[in-house]
Amino acid sequence: MNSGGKGKPYTIMLRWQRTQGSSFLGLPDVYSDEFAKSVDESANTQCTPGKNDPLILGYFVGNEPAWDTRESEVVDMILAGPATATQTKLKEFLAQGDSPKRRKEFIIGAFEKYLDLIITAVKKYDPNHLTLGIRFIGRTSDETLRTGRVFDVCSMNIYEYEPSMQLDNFYRLTGRPILMGEFHMGAPGNGLSAGLVQVKDQVERGVAYRYYVEQSAALDCFLGAHWFQWRDQSPLGRNDGENYNIGFVDINDRPYKELVEAAKATHKRLLDVHSGKIPPISQRPKASDAGGPSLIRKY
Length: 299
Hints:
CATH superfamily: Glycosidases
């Protein structure tokens, strides 16, 4: 993902400039002329070069909005922050009534404005490729998920043993095909933590991969999935300390054969599973002795 070359299809993660001091839990000053101008300029810079590239699948426009279910907190931050166009809009809106429901309504509306600006700019400079969504986390609220209807394809990062329930719900709310932005299965080993979804050992990582991917592929709405990530993380941790045994290869590029062979077996079956010719495998993975998905982040 996010890189072309060697004749392989790829996706692009777009990045957007944000005005210093006026972004709250990732939500910028969406009603300002300055933000609209910066989105247009960024879309031109990022999308124009590839608009005729047949290997580009499409664009992700963001990742895991942090404000979902925290709308009232974001409202307080905007009110306490510097004077902005969004603050002016917010004060006018709350003058007609201030309640948790109305606060959520305002933030959802501001987010819809944000998406509209971005999608309009992307399509302006590249009308030939898909918008692939903003990669919501698996437990995003229904109100926020509904905003995904504006994309060509919706995307979601789901860290579970089986994502079918979330995928079905997302499709029901948006009517859009769904692409998995991230998932993984980890196991304790090599001095690393086991990851967000933990299984017993390397053999069970393969079982978990097959179960997750085939159960997803059996759904009409499912387009595909991105694994996070190719290589194990460093035992010393990345910038936030995260050090997971989640790669297809270890830090020395040695493959985890159990996972690789399991993936190869499932990939040979995927078209038949998706078309309903054969059922998805039903063997569930054995969880880590530590038990269940990690609680480090909520998905």
